[in-house]
Specification:
mainly beta, four-stranded antiparallel sheet
Amino acid sequence: MATYASYKKVDGSSIVDGSINEDRISLSSFATWSVQWIYGQPCFCSTGCCCLWTVPSNVRRVYFELWGAGGNGHGACSNGRCQHYAGAGGGYYNAKMIDTVPGCQYTICAAGVFPCLTNECIGCQGCSSYITGFNLSNFCAIGGIGGCANGSWQEACFSDFSCCLGPTSNGGDFGMGNHRGGFHLHSSNCHCQCRGETPTPAPFIGTQVHQSTQECWIRCGCWTVPYGHGGQGGMTAYCGGCCGQGGTGGPGLVKISFL
C-alpha cells in the first residue's frame, strides 16, 4: 500500500532554474499576518506618537484603524447659579484597507491630547489621528467634541453629534462619529444637588468614565481617562463656585493589521 511519504516528492534537480517566479506562486504561500499598535502615553499632557512605519517583506495588504483623541472636559465657568453639565465626547473612528508593497513607508500619528486644561464653558475638541502614504488620501479620525457647562435657566446642553460624518468620510472605508455624554440637572435654591455626567468613549474600545458630586465647592476634572475617551469636567455643587478646570481627553490610537 502506498504511503503519504512515498509520493508528492519534488526533486530539486529536475526544476529548471528561473522557471518558478513570484507570479507563479500563490500570495498565501508567503502570507505574514501580524498586528501592531501605535500610541502615546495615557496622561493629561500626552503628545501622542508619530513615527515612520515600513511595510515588512512579503506583505501585500494593510488594514489601518484610527481613533482620534477625546475632547476636553468643560470648566466650572459660571457664578451665581447652578449649571447643567454634559460630558465630553470620545474620539471618532476610521478604517481603511489598502494594497501596498514591501518597503513602502507610511507616516503614522496617533493623536496627542489638547495641550492644556479647560477653564471655559465649552471644552476644546480633541486632536486627530492620521496616516499618510501610498494608496491613502486625507485619511484621518477626528477628535471628540468638548464637554459643556451651561448656567442658563432656559436651556441645557444637549447630547448632540458635533458634525455629520458619512461612513466613507475622511478618506476611509468605514467611519463612526460620536457625541457628548448626557447631563443632569437637579437643584434646590443655591445647592446644586447631585451633579453628574458621563463622558463618552471612542467606538469599539469599550471604556467607561462617570463623575459626580453632591457636596463639593469645586471638583476639577484633572484625572486621566482611557485612550480615545472624553475628558472629565470641572464641577461645583453650589452657586458661585467657579474656576474648576476640565481635564484633557484620552490620546488617540492606531492599529495596523497586515498580511
